[in-house]
Recover the amino acids of this structure.
């Protein structure tokens, strides 16, 4: 049980940019082109909705995921996003009708059941260490390391997360550093060592580089 709050220091994004530029001139050129880091504007999406959207989006294109999530939200026209109990009251077949697989529907139910029971304390994630957040979220069916990392980066504003399994990040590293093939997790860890303690910020700039 969490007994003491984990203190998260506010991120100085200007300092983070300077650190990354000094530590890695190749990535530094990308930082200069893109300017301020977009992570400074932390997502305000409610955490239950963010996790539900992540579960719905797994293994789907952006367009298909958006369509199915929109249909899912339409089941609750008066609520915006349902409370955990409201979603649990929806029959499985109705969730299937909006495009959710049986497995994803079961994931959503597990997410909401844990939230309703208080075993998934989404309102206390800010008081947890990165490792505690990871352990708490991955206990939910269907939530793996990557989803937890995205919550840590975009929802909780943690500055030193390096998502080793993110396909976009691997593609950007391969292109940015002129690698012949996609880097392994071990390679990414070695390359990212100079970016500490701002590997989330470095990752954001590498994602931004994909849009160039």
């Amino acid at each position: 049980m969490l007994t003491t709050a984990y203190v998260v220091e506010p991120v100085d994004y200007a300092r983070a940019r300077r650190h990354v530029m000094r530590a890695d001139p190749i990535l530094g050129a990308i930082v200069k082109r893109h300017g301020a880091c977009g992570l400074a504007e932390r997502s305000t999406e409610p955490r239950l909705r963010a996790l539900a959207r992540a579960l719905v989006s797994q293994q789907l294109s952006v367009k298909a995921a958006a369509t199915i999530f929109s249909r899912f939200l339409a089941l609750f026209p008066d609520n915006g996003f349902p409370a955990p109990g409201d979603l649990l009251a929806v029959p499985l077949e109705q969730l299937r009708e909006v495009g959710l697989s049986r497995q994803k529907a079961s994931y959503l139910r597990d997410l909401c059941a844990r939230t309703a029971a208080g075993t998934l304390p989404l309102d206390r994630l800010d008081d947890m260490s990165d490792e505690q957040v990871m352990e708490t979220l991955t206990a939910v069916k269907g939530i793996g390391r990557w989803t937890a990392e995205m919550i840590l980066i975009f929802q909780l504003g943690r500055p030193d997360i390096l998502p080793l399994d993110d396909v976009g990040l691997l593609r950007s590293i391969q292109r940015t550093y002129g690698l012949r093939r996609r880097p392994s997790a071990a390679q990414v860890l070695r390359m990212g060592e100079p970016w500490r303690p701002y590997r989330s910020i470095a990752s954001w700039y590498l994602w931004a580089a994909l849009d160039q």
